[in-house]
Specification:
Structural class: alpha+beta
Order of helices and strands: HHHEEEHEEEEH
Strand content: 15-25%
Number of strands: 7
Number of helices: 5
Mean pLDDT: 80
Low-confidence stretches: 2-36
């Protein structure tokens, strides 16, 4: 015995409705993929080791890609130190969505005027401050780790962390200004 709904699936209007639903789902997937498109650009070409060294106050190696398949992410590390102990500056290109997301909510730490078309600070526990900058349709994020002892523990840990945070923000602002000269 054939059920009535099985027979109705063969009707042209049901087939068209199902086909339309599949096309809408495919279009939504394409829209979602466009939103998830990654940022483009070669971050290592925006700064020289000399520029980063001058701002950070230590000699750094030339910028290297954090991942060779993603040139939009670059890091300059203090020369002669192991990666976990080296002072460093990271720079990466972002999409508009990546720029907008941390502007509000628990990570937001305020805007910064006078740098690009728009700039703001965000803070992530365990990572620290970062500076996001928009100029035209280009979006970048700068992070620095200028004072390794800011990771110290003990009675003066809070003061050292505050000092490290302020130094990081000073470095990030100066690096952002240097990058804007190249855009």
């Amino acid at each position: 015995m054939q059920h009535r709904w099985t027979a109705n699936l063969a009707s042209p209007s049901i087939a068209i409705a199902i086909g339309f639903s599949v096309l809408c789902a495919a279009a939504e997937s394409a829209s979602a993929a466009a939103v998830l498109e990654h940022a483009r650009g070669d971050a290592c070409k925006l700064l020289t080791a000399a520029q980063v060294s001058a701002v950070l106050g230590v000699q750094v190696d030339e910028g290297t890609y954090i991942d060779a398949t993603h040139p939009e992410f670059c890091i300059w590390r203090e020369r002669g130190k192991p990666p976990m102990m080296a002072q460093n500056v990271e720079l990466h290109f972002m999409t508009a969505l990546q720029f907008e997301a941390p502007k509000t909510g628990p990570f937001a730490k305020g805007s910064l005027s006078g740098l690009g078309d728009e700039a703001y600070w965000s803070y992530t526990t365990g990572v620290g401050f970062s500076l996001s900058i928009k100029k035209g349709s280009t979006y970048i994020r700068v992070q620095s780790r200028p004072i390794p002892k800011s990771m110290a523990r003990g009675p003066d840990a809070a003061a050292l962390k505050a000092q490290g945070d302020e130094k990081a923000k000073t470095v990030e602002k100066a690096i952002g200004a240097e990058v804007l000269k190249s855009l």
